[in-house]
Amino acid sequence: MWNNIEEKQKAFQEEALQYIDMLYNTALKLTSNEKDAEDLVQETYYKAFRFFDQYEPGTSCKAWLFKILKNTFINKYRKQLKQPEQVDYNTVEPFIDLIKDKEYFNSHTPDETIFNNYLSDEINEALSKLPYEFKMVLLLADIEGFSYNEIADIMNCPLGTVRSRLSRARRMMFKLLLEYAKSKGFYSEEGKK
User: Fold this and answer.
1) pTM for the whole thing?
2) Are 153 and 164 in contact, with CB atoms under 8 Å apart?
3) What domains sit in the chain, N to C, each tagged with a CATH number?
4) How many helices and strands in the chain, by DSSP H and E?
5) Sign (positive/negative) of CA torsion 67, 6, 19, 127?
6) Which residues have C-beta within 8 Å of that of residue 112, sequence separation ≥ 6?
7) I need a surface site. Which of 16, 49, 71, 190 has the fewest CB within 10 A?
8) HEC per residue, 56-109
9) Over the stretch 144-177, which tens digit does the pLDDT of each residue have?
């Protein structure tokens, strides 16, 4: 397919790197942790580059990458369930001074500001309460804008399952956010009638 590694790198950069922000946003919502999200995206791109010769040009690279992200997340999640969490004091110790440093908490990068304004804390909290299958389908459909067919391919499930999960995820989010919507004036019992 490619004559040398440089050609492969160029093709990969043109085809795959344009989706890095989308992958990161989804990874952040799945992991609820910036470092874990960065690791997940890095591992996704590592695997994608490693197996880029299996990607079929002309198909959706975005969907292919999200499928790798999903599978990588599931594999990591299963692995974490099998082993208890361990904390090494030497890795935590440098952060003690950081916690004391008030300037750190008063400064935000533009990316953090954009993300924090993108979804409210209430919405992020409600999203975190959804089971993985429902959260992933909701993120792919309503945040990333994938079609039902693309989601079915990414999630490795039938189209009907995607529709069902998306419908249930939206109902769950509605229930979780009803009081919040009322307090912000987005929903009223009168408008429901």
Assistant:
1) 0.62
2) no
3) 1-84 (1.10.1740.10), 119-193 (1.10.10.10)
4) 13, 0
5) positive
6) none
7) 190
8) CCCCCHHHHHHHHHHHHHHHHHHHHHHCCCCCCHHHHCHHHHHHHCHHHHHCCC
9) 889 999 999 999 999 999 999 999 999 999 999 8
